[in-house]
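Archive entry: two folds, one per protein. Generate the first.
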Amino acid sequence: MGLDITYDILIIGAGPIGLAAGLEAQKEGLSYLILERGCLVNSIYNYPLNMTFFSTSERLEIGGVPFTSLNAKPTRSEAMEYYRRVADTFDLNINLFEEVQHLQPEGEIYHIQTSKSTYKARNVVVAVGFYGIPNLLHVPGEDLAKVRHYYFDPHYYFRQKVLVVGANNSAADAALETWRKGAEVTLVVRQPELGSIKYWTKPDLENRIKAGEIKAYFNASVTEVRAQEVDIQTPEGKVTVANDFVLAMTGYQPDFSFLEKIGVKLTEDEKRYPQYHPDTMETNLPRVYLAGVICGGMDTHVWFIENSREHAIKIVRHIKHAQEAAKV
């Protein structure tokens, strides 16, 4: 059990920003523990096998540790190698595959119940990502095994009829990669045109669509999925296409239920912005902080590794100053 230690900071999430918070705490001489319900940098692990970051490697660095890459844009495997080496080099205090279930304040201390133990901490940093809960299509047949909200390896779809839903990077990568591995690909885009796609990918997909190698329906949506076909509503009417797999690359959302359960206030509109002070990252709960993409609510394209690394610095600086002020 962890009750014999009261940590200065307990960090929920071992993604890049959670690791950055641990590095800052260590640098400032604060005791800390990082808890992660999955593997190290779990969101990156769940990215597609051949995924390439939009950012350059130096913008993904944390703790001042250089991230060298063989490519202009680093890959998923390079990023996992980098963050593993950071965790090992600094011997970060991390418990993996341990899910935080409950947070209970008692005076100036938080009691944290997990799937394995109980801990005490003066401050809590929530640095969880948004890759665990997919945005659903909400159509009949979405519960069929053929419907996937995560895409990993294109080889699996060789000689299969694949329908990809989405307009942005994930959908573009899935469509192009599965097509190149021998799939018959249909793309369904709700908008009138392709969305925000990496500049080296977008013209490739546009050319495949123009050549008729990938069939695309714009201003369209899936209305029903069945065992061997899919219905698509288009501006010209309903279209039924033969289908083996549906890759719904419709994005993901943070675990709002966890934030609500521990008492973090959220806006009541569709954006579900959590309440926090931008200078300190402290929420409406005293000494509970947010870091990383969770800060954007449903706006999951606002915060990234490169622009939320500073959250860790703000948080640890605020905690350190509060501790020093309490000693005066």
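Generate the second and append.
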Amino acid sequence: MNKILSLLPGYNCGSCGFKQCRDFAAQITDESSLMRCPFLEREMFRTNLEQLKGLVGQEKNEDKVTGIIDGLRADFSLGPLHSECSCREDIHPLDGSLEIEIGDILRYRPLGCPVTHFAKVIDRSPGIFTVHIVGPLHRLGKNDFSFKDAGLCMILAFEGIVIKGKVPSMCQTVKFLPEHCMMQKVHSGIVVSVEGRRLRIEAIDLKVW
């Protein structure tokens, strides 16, 4: 995205429909979307426009992310933070009576997902548990481990690194594919934190409109 941004006029005029050129750059997907910037057709930016067309075509092929089960196009795939096994997820068990501690393995089903998950608790706050997904059962490779049954859970947030695709802007509603998702299902949510390629996404929904 930085290369694309460097070739835009940089006027931050809002003519494209975005407040800043950076926001516009994050949304460019093809040559037609480039034309939302009226200045690129001016003679002084003709060379930039040709370079941008080449970059857009290249990034379109390299950064394409598609869900397998639904065939939906995602904006990016989300992978784990450095040296971690999966994206971090914040979950909220609908049954609040279970005593859960850091280090516990939970068995649960995310609201809206048909797959039973197993996850290790790495942090906690009242009613919310941050976990690493460690598998459906076959992924764990054993049948005799202990776990706590958390039942149905709401998925509140994801945190991870953009592995493939464009880094979104703050407050942007996105479609993303968690790399560890067994169904390779596209999720949606709102970006609430951006640090380089590290994101936190909240208001998670498995329904992608």
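Annotation attached to the second fold: The longest strand covers residues 148-165. The chain has a mean pLDDT of 87.
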